[in-house]
Amino acid sequence: MTTDNTIVPAPADQAAPPEDHAARNKLVISLLLVSAFVVILNETIMGVALPHLMHDLDITAGAAQWLTTAFMLTMAVVIPVTGFLLQRLNTRPVFILAMSLFSAGTLISAIAPGFAVLVIGRIVQASGTAIMMPLLMTTVMTLVPPESRGKTMGNISIVISVAPAIGPTISGLILSVLDWRWMFILVLPIALGALALGAKRIVNVTTPKDAPIDVLSVVLSAIGFGGFVYGLSGLGEAAHHPTPVSPWIPLLVGAAVIAVFVLRQLSLQKQDRALLDLRTLTSRVFTISVAMMAILMMAMFGAFILLPIYLQNVLGLSTLQTGLLLLPGGLVMGLCAPTVGTLFDKYGPVPLVIPGAVLLSIALWGLTFVQQDTSVWLLLAAHLTLSVGLALMFTPLFTVSLGSLPPNLYSHGSAVIGTAQQVAGAAGTALFVAIMTLQATSLTNTGADILTATTGGIRSAFLCGAIISLGAVAAALFIKKPAPRAMPAEFAPGH
């Protein structure tokens, strides 16, 4: 008998010593962590580069935004399918597929002769990125025992939080001395190295099962989540300038199709054939954790887009100065994550999640008071506070959310988390930018100068984020450590 996403033990006379399995598992997780860090880094590396690309490729701001929008759209479309993919295929081929797609996309982007090919490269990159994170989380939940998952999930938190945080800094450093193509040229050998090493050293640690794919669910997922994220992205763009199609149309169509997709999954999961098994949401801890992670992603991506605008357009800092100012926050998240994981293993989520939510809210409320002459040191303190708050929450939420599920739902739980993060990130970006632009336009129409109007718009956007953060504080009160699940007898040591 086998169970999906579970290691099949060797016969007793061939069983490897436990330490061999431990070394193998550590190597597999380490390779997946390094690879995931590289692919996630690219999700935010383009933001600072857009002005350079507009000049070099002679494109408008609206067109340049598609380099980010197309990436998010592809992630939203591909991630829901990964639950099925991880059940049907084994660890090694899924890893090779993910890193091959990412490497191919990086190469296409590096040699792109024009804008259209560059967008194609970003789409191919995103396809690999979308597969990598669910693969990492599902593998960790399968290999790591509950009592030490916090520490390992802390390392995953470094990937999730630090890579996007330092993306703008790295791109700012590259663009200060090199052409935009070097953002891809420098990443390519790292990606190819990770692919080669992983193809050679990663072993299969899960058991595939014959899971039939429902084509209609794939189509509904692509239209629903793709349309919804496109609509959210369009709201932010429409705040700057008119769009050919009202963003509300794809937003409403996407929401309607997602509703149909959900109904179909509820029907299919009765026969264990769902593309995205929504029985994950019957776990209260999982649902609350995913809702909190969505709030965190909204706050994080919203702050990542608003702070550079404020620092550059209001305070007059350069791209490089902006990246360097935001770098300590990313480093703090990275330094905190392993410690947070260890504390989680020892004390559980409550002493971490509640203070984290409070710090997040304090930082966002503090940013609602920015002025045209606010000290950069106060902004640095606010960003560090925000970063510590995020670091205290990411690891516990990842761990308790997936830990509350049975092993056969790990892959679907990872896909649900990834989908929620992408939609929330797009929503946060769109919401913050739209509020900032609308308020700035309103102030300009009443006679305010550009700096005053921009500052007022940014304050309003942060106020919206601060109000949303109160939801995270309230939800944190309901987070608890899930009861440990006994390992099935046939997979216990010695069998």
UniProtKB/TrEMBL annotation:
Among Pfam families, the record links this protein to: MFS_1
Chain segments annotated as transmembrane: 27-51, 63-86, 93-120, 126-144, 156-174, 180-199, 211-233, 245-264, 285-311, 351-370, 376-403, 415-438, 458-479
Protein's membrane topology: Multi-pass membrane protein
Alphabetized UniProt keyword annotations: Cell membrane, Membrane, Transmembrane, Transmembrane helix, Transport
Q: Where's the Major facilitator superfamily (MFS) profile domain?
A: 28-483
Chief subcellular location equals membrane
The record's listing under SUPFAM superfamilies reads: MFS general substrate transporter
Where does it localize? Cell membrane
Against InterPro entries, the record matches this protein to: EmrB-like, MFS, MFS_dom, MFS_trans_sf
Q: What is this protein called?
A: DHA2 family efflux MFS transporter permease subunit
